[in-house]
Every structure is written in structure tokens, then in C-alpha cells.
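Issue: ligand-bound run for zinc ion - logging full I/O for the record.

Environment: standard queue, default settings, no custom constraints.

Inputs:
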Amino acid sequence: MRDPVLFYVIVGGLAGIWAVAWAWRRYRWYSASKAPFPENWLTQVRKALPFYDHMPKPLQEQLQTHIKQFLFRKQFVGCAGLVVTEEMRLTIAACASLLLLNRPTLNFRNVRWIYLYPAEFVVRHTVQDAAGVVSTEDGVLAGEAWHNGRVILSWDDVQQGVYDFNDGRNVVLHEFAHQLDAESGAMNGAPLLRSKGAYGSWATILSREFNSLRDHAYFGANTVLDTYGATNPAEFFAVATESFFEEPDSLSEEHPELFTELLAYYQVDPREWRPKVAPKRAKAAKKVIS
Ligand SMILES: [Zn+2]
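Outputs:
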């Protein structure tokens, strides 16, 4: 550009527009976070998290803030004719927000869209066999976490997850655990930990527990951890997260080292606000969730 004054005017104008837009977004984010939590939302949260009233007050307040921020940032898209309701949005936001308590977090900043199907859905994947032949195959899924800011869920399965919060099955916890895992750059069972020193014991203990679960799966033995977690380390972390929040007493008794690692990561102890229930054995086959 030949006129340097005009150049600086244009650059300054664009920078000004960007700054105003950024400040406006921050203001709306701040306002959404500070807005009172509606009473009818609280009713819905109690339905989604039946132990809500047993949680310490500071955790309840954190949960409410995370839910407001979650609903402010995430776009819900109804699929296959589903009309997304407030109950659906709040149920998913409440379960996902459990994973954020007591931790520095940007509220699943990589997740922008949540696609919600009425029930299980069919997804077509490209696969490559050992000989390098690439083909496509269809899979029926209850949930799926993508790297590109999308989470796909079946509302039917979301409801089943909150209907029984003691069975170690919760597709929302599972898929959003994958999203936490992906924040490290790869979905591999190693999320971002609080310090470099924490990675050593995390790798040692989770690898040992993963291999143990693979042995259990091979011999068909039942354990508090669903054998779907033996699929790979990423699925192991997601399945362990489900157990940590849904069956904390059983997990801590049967897998104390794993429980301690998850306790250090999630910074909450669900045993303090979960009812003590007998562990469920001989679980029904887990639906496919990736
Ligand atoms: Zn999964």
C-alpha cells in the first residue's frame, strides 16, 4: 500500500473492531457466569444429579457456574428430528460439569457443538486393515467424541445414564472424559495433569490397571471397571471416569491406586456425597461408545 497513513488507519480500525468484539464476548461470558441460577434449572439439575443436595455448598456453586458457562458456549443441535429441550441441555451440562469441579478449567473449550440424537445412531467410519486396505463400515453408537469440537450423544442413553447413577454407566461422563483427554493434544488416556511430576505415577498405574483389565476381559471375569475399558488406553480413562463418579466406593476398594490417581486428577472425592451402594456385578454388555 502506497499511503502509509491509510495503511495504519485500516490496521488500527481492524484491531479496534477485534478488541471491541473480544471485550463484548468477555462481557457476555462474565454476565452469563454471574447471572442467578434459575430455580427451574435447579429442579432439572437435581433430577440429573440425584446426589446434588448432598454436595458441599462450594461445589454446588461451582457446578452452577460451570453449567451456566457450558450452556452459554455450547451449541446443541437436534438430529433425526429431535427437538432439543431445556431438560436435555441441562442434563448434559450438569453431568459434564461434574468433571470440572475444583480444577482450573476452560469449560471444555474445544467443544463447540453437541449433536443429540433421539436414540442410538449409525456412524460411518473409514477403517484400514492390517494389509492396508481402506474400507468403510457402519457402527451403531450411543455416543462419540470427535477431535473437531463435536460431541454426539443419544438422548435415550443420556437418560439411562442419569436414571441409575450407581451402575458405572454414563455416556455424558464418558464422552466428556474423552474431551478432557484430548486437551493434551491426543486422545490417548493421558490428559493434562497438574504437574510434570504427576505423569510418572499416572503412566505406571494406569498402564498396570489397563493391562489387568485386559486380562480380566480375556478371561471373562467381572470387575467394577467395565471391560469396554480394555479396548485401548483412551477408553480405559473414559470408563474409569464413569466408575469414579458412579461407583466410587467400589473403585476405591478394588483399585485403590487407580482411585488415588483419579482423585488427584479430578480434585473431588465423590464418596463424600454419593450414597454407599452395593457394587453391581455381571454388568450387561456395554453399548458401543467411542
Ligand atoms: Zn469412548
